[in-house]
Amino acid sequence: MRAVEVREISQVAEARRVAVTLAEAHGFGEGDAGRVAIVATELATNILKHGDGGSLLFGSFEDSSGAGIECIALDKGSGMANVADSMRDGHSTTGTAGNGLGAIARGSHMTDIYSAPGGGTALLARLQRGKPTHLGAPPHPTFGAISLPMHGEEACGDAWCRKDDASGATFMVADGLGHGPLAAQAAHAATRIFYSSAAPLPSEMLPVMHNALRPTRGAAIGIAHVDAKAGQIIFAGVGNIAATLIDGNGVRRMVSNNGTIGHIARRMRDFTYPIVGETLIVLASDGLATSWDLNAYPGLVAHHPSLIAGVLWRDFNRGRDDVTVLVSRVEIG
Fold first, then answer.
1. Quick one: CA torsion of 320, 322, 323, 324, rounded to 10 degrees?
2. Mean pLDDT per 10-residue run, the chain (333 residues)?
3. Burial of 103: CB neighbours in 10 Å, binned 0-12, 13-18, 19+
């Protein structure tokens, strides 16, 4: 994933270039890449006009809705009093033609916006190959993530991943010690073990990762397994991966053991948490401050997980480390 700061008009072209390069790398043809260019340009321009600058995040996605390019525009501007009005062609608060948000929606396969007066705006646009049809409701989104290197670094020392088995989905966030290429090496080693392991429980994966990461710097790792049949989440972690459950009963912090996978990890224990209605799982590396509270963002929990992750990154990124935020929505029954 790449982040592009948009603080002046010259950076609009950089945002467009990054978006098109990513699209071409994922097999988008000339016409589809042109659509990506238009959406990226409108997103960057809106950030300047209405948000007094902000950030554009570009990455790829693959889930039940398909695969393609994900663009997330984030600002801390005045926000929108009425999102539906702002989406209408001809609506403008700056004296322009007022077609920007409409053009983004028409050029994307799905969009999602969260905005609050005085609280800034977050806009997610997902684009796939082929012309958007906007026929029928898209699949209910279940997960999304932000994973970005520390400013000034090319390699991200964090990694996240997801896989499914007969009992449910399993998620992992790994934070290689420090940052840069050597941290990335450790995180990617954990990812390889995650995908190859047939162990059913997080606590059974961690010892295998511990041995595999011994030649590396080591990593903090958190793994959450959703056991749909049993109606519970099983979590095991070593190190400072913050793991949180949010449901109708409030917020629960999941327990992680002290240590570093690959170096010192004396305890690798599973903890079990019942699923109560619709639940959000949030796993985050320590590049994200832990002081966030989604109650401060009315209605945000109902939005796309990628958008939730983006808002948390915007407002709680410490600015001195890699940052990964993985959000998953689960519901039993």
1. -170
2. 94 96 97 96 92 93 93 93 60 50 92 93 96 73 94 94 91 96 97 94 96 97 94 96 93 96 95 93 97 95 96 96 96 68
3. middle
DSSP label at 138? P
One DSSP character per residue, 177-201 reads: SSSSHHHHHHHHHHHHHHHH---SS
Residues pairing with 273 in the sheet: 233
With beta carbons less than 8 A apart as the criterion, state whether 236 and 271 touch: yes
| Contact by Cβ (8 Å): 56, 71 | yes
d(CA 317, CA 327): 15
pTM, 2 dp: 0.92
Map out the domains of the chain with their CATH numbers. Answer: 2-127 (3.30.565.10), 143-330 (3.60.40.10)
The C-alpha angle 59, 234, 302, rounded to 5 degrees, equals 50
